[in-house]
Structure formats: C-alpha cells, structure tokens
Amino acid sequence: MALTYETPADNRRPHGSYRFDVYSLKAGRRMTLYGKSALCLFIDLEADFEVDALCERALVIPNTKPARVVDFWAMRGGVPTFFLLTKQSEAWMNEKKKFAYVDFYKWVADCNAKVVEVLVDEFEKRRVRYDNWSTILQHLISHRGQVSENLADRCTNLMPAKWRLQDFEKSISDVDAMLVRATVFTLLTEGKLRCHTIDSLPINHSTEVSRT
User: Fold this and answer.
1) 80-119, pLDDT tens digit by residue?
2) What are the residues whose beta carbons fall under 8 Å from the beta carbon of 63, sequence distance 6 or more?
3) CB atoms within 10 A of CB 186
4) By CB distance 3.0 to 4.6 Å, which of 80, 89, 151, 198 could disulfide with 113?
5) How many CB atoms lie within 10 A of CB 150?
C-alpha cells in the first residue's frame, strides 16, 4: 500500500520564520507554510504536472534532535516522495550520516518511496519563475471550478502550434478573456502547454505559449 498523507504532523512555527497562508490546488485545502524556501518549493510542486497529491510537513523523522520535519510529501509520477529542504553545507552532510537519517532513508526505500533533497541556495536565482507561477496559481484559484472540460477541449482544438496569450484570448470572443486565460493556465499546469520564457521573463499579455 502506497504511503499517503493528508494533514501535517507538526504545525509549530519555527522561531523567527515568516508565515505564509496559501491554498493548494493539489491538496484542495489551505496550507500554512513557514519560511520563504518552503513557499518556493510549494510553488514548484503545485506547478509540477506529475504531482497529483501534496501535504506539508507530513511527518517528523524519528529520533532526530532537534526534530527534523519532512518539508513536503507528494505523490509524484505515482511514487510517494518526501522533499527535504537542505543547504549546501558540511553541516547537512554530517547530519545525514547520523543513524536517524540512515534509518529514515532505508525505511523510505523499503516502502518503494523516494527522498528528494532540494537546495535552498538555488531559490533566489529563480525569482522570475516564482513570481510567474504565483501569478498563474492565484489566477487558477480565483477561477477554480469554472474551467469546464468542454472549454478546455475547445481551447485545445483551436490552439495553433505557437501563439501569444493576448491573441488567443481575443480569438475566443464569446468567452470572458480571464476565463480563457484560466483555461490556458490549467493546460499549462497539466503539462499540455509550454512557456519557454516562464523562468526568465515576467508573464504578460505578450507571453508566447506553445503546444508540447
């Protein structure tokens, strides 16, 4: 039986950390995140079309002192995956050698699951990406439940190989432009469309999108 988690194991706020209240489309509920790194990883997981279930701080790694919480659990590509935020430092390498972590990694492997270590050092270099995906996710949340399967199919059938966001919104004149945009963003999160500049240029009406 696959490992699944739906509620956080630890809700305590780490001393000095920023609090972010977000809505997860993957989990279908609100989440409270602590720290900017957790927010960035959350955005990456919400944007990942292979992720279809998500839980923050799903479990506490047994026998760790101080207690170490798994930052996220996700069902990714059908595989239960535990995400750990790490820093590229000798301290983390030393921590990993401790029996508690060795036992945890072994348990995960025995359960046919995975551990993914995510370097927090990389987040600051990808600010444009996180700004863009924040915009996309907020738009989807404000239109959740409004993008029908028929509308998604219609948009898919009308899409050329490559097009600008504004041009496509105008081409479907009988549907509100913001709802068309929500449909495009839905298809983007499902991996059916691609935006080559999403990591490098702010998303706007001139952004180019293409079929995968």
Assistant:
1) 999 999 887 655 656 666 788 889 999 999 999 999 989 8
2) 99, 100, 103
3) 22
4) 80
5) 8
pLDDT for the residue numbered 93: 59
pLDDT, tens only, 40-85: 999 999 999 999 999 999 999 998 888 889 999 999 999 999 999 9
Q: Mean pLDDT score of the chain, rounded to an integer?
A: 92
182-203 average pLDDT score? 96
pLDDT of residue 96: 63
Residue pair 142/159 in contact (Cβ under 8 Å)? The answer is no
Burial class (CB in 10 A: 0-12, 13-18, 19+), 42: buried
Number of neighbours of residue 96 by Cβ within 10 angstroms: 15
Task: Evaluate whether 48 touches 68 at the Cβ level (below 8 Å).
Answer: no
The whole-model pTM stands at 0.92
Share of the chain above pLDDT 90, in %: 80
